[in-house]
Automatic annotation (TrEMBL):
Transferase in keyword set: yes
GO terms assigned for molecular function: acyltransferase activity, transferring groups other than amino-acyl groups
Name of this chain's protein: GNAT family N-acetyltransferase
Keywords: Transferase
Domain N-acetyltransferase: 3-36
């Protein structure tokens, strides 16, 4: 999987939700992947928060 960028999990604190934090973090990962010439990116999103 050398041509891929893989992010296993991303959790955002409940207090930070709805403020674009996750979007900014994912965009930064995407920028890093592009900079490292990793053309393959796949996102799978779970919108339901997991119980703590």
């Amino acid at each position: 999987m050398k041509d891929a960028c893989y992010l296993q999990d991303l959790f955002v604190n409940e207090a930070a939700r709805g403020h674009g934090v996750a979007r900014a973090l994912i965009e930064r990962v995407a920028q890093s992947a592009r900079g490292a010439e990793r053309p393959q990116r796949e996102y799978c999103v779970e919108r339901t928060p997991l119980p703590v």
